[in-house]
UniProtKB/TrEMBL annotation:
SUPFAM superfamilies with a match to the protein in the record: S-adenosyl-L-methionine-dependent methyltransferases (SSF53335)
GO molecular function: S-adenosylmethionine-dependent methyltransferase activity; tRNA (5-carboxymethyluridine(34)-5-O)-methyltransferase activity; tRNA binding
Keywords from the named record: Methyltransferase, Transferase
Domain spans labelled Methyltransferase type: 1-72
GO BP terms, alphabetized: tRNA methylation; tRNA wobble uridine modification
Gene from which this protein is expressed: Alkbh8
Bias type Basic and acidic residues, positions: 86-102
Gene3D superfamilies in the cross-refs: Vaccinia Virus protein VP39
Positions of region (Disordered): 86-124
Protein name, entry field: ALKB8 protein
Annotated organism of origin: Bombycilla garrulus
Record-linked Pfam families: Methyltransf_11
UniProt keyword Methyltransferase present: yes
Biased composition (Polar residues): 103-124
């Protein structure tokens, strides 16, 4: 059974005859202890405070039966690890991957190539965010005020808390509200149109950070912690 915040992605699952429903990762409508295993891929890094990220992991473990396991993937601050660049950094613009880059605002997917939905991701944060930034331990630059830096796709991260541009595929000829727009080139005049750019909030994790958050929960044991293509990953066991 799958769940996602995006109704559009859930509808795609339904078309493929998979069981899926729309829900909030902080409150999953499944009874406690009913799952043998849970997977959270590229979700937790979208929560804007340490408290909400911890609450999401706690909710994930609530679903597990004793002895059940969970796999968590989050985007890593370290896109170059042990002298090796991640696939994210290697895919530069101006190549056959240009279209893929224009439509990437998500973490490296280990299980599929699905992209984000076509709606904007709310970029909510609180006073606690600034306190979190003061405690950074991996060389990230702190944010001086509430204006988060906007990340340049396919480059290294310089802040743990940032906005990642998402270029809406297809686009629209009309500017909507405060949404930024860019001109998509190529083809005939009819195909050249303004494409809205949405900004999705990310908290990229430093080495050891995800594991430390998981270890703060008494109900689980960290079986494994590892790096995989620009992601920090843990495998948990419910006690």
């Amino acid at each position: 059974v799958g769940c996602d915040r995006s109704k559009s992605l859930v509808d795609i699952c339904g078309e493929k005859h998979f069981q899926a429903f729309v829900c909030d990762a902080l409150s999953v409508p499944i009874r406690s202890g009913s799952c043998d295993a849970c997977i959270s891929i590229a979700v937790i890094h979208h929560f804007s405070t340490a408290e909400r990220r911890l609450a999401t992991i706690r909710e994930l473990t609530r679903l597990l039966r004793p002895g059940g396991t969970a796999l968590i993937y989050v985007w890593a601050m370290e896109q170059e690890y042990k002298n090796q660049k991640s696939k994210y950094l290697k895919e530069k613009s101006g190549s056959k991957n240009k279209d893929k880059e224009m439509n990437t605002g998500t973490a490296q997917r280990p299980l599929s190539d699905q992209g984000p939905d076509n709606s904007s991701q709310d970029s909510a944060w609180s006073d606690q965010l600034l306190n979190d930034l003061k405690d950074e331990s991996c060389g990230a630059k702190p944010v001086a005020d509430f204006r988060l830096p906007v990340h340049t796709n396919r480059t290294s991260f310089h802040s743990q808390d940032l906005l990642v541009p998402w270029h809406l595929k297809g686009g629209t000829k009309k500017k909507e509200g405060s949404v930024d727009t860019v001109l998509v080139s190529g083809g005939s005049k009819e195909s050249q149109e303004l494409s809205p750019v949405f900004h999705r909030y990310y908290h990229v994790f430093c080495e050891g950070e995800l594991e430390a958050v998981c270890r703060s929960l008494d109900c689980v044991r960290v079986q494994k912690s590892y790096y995989d293509q620009g992601n920090w990953c843990v495998v948990l066991e419910k006690l």
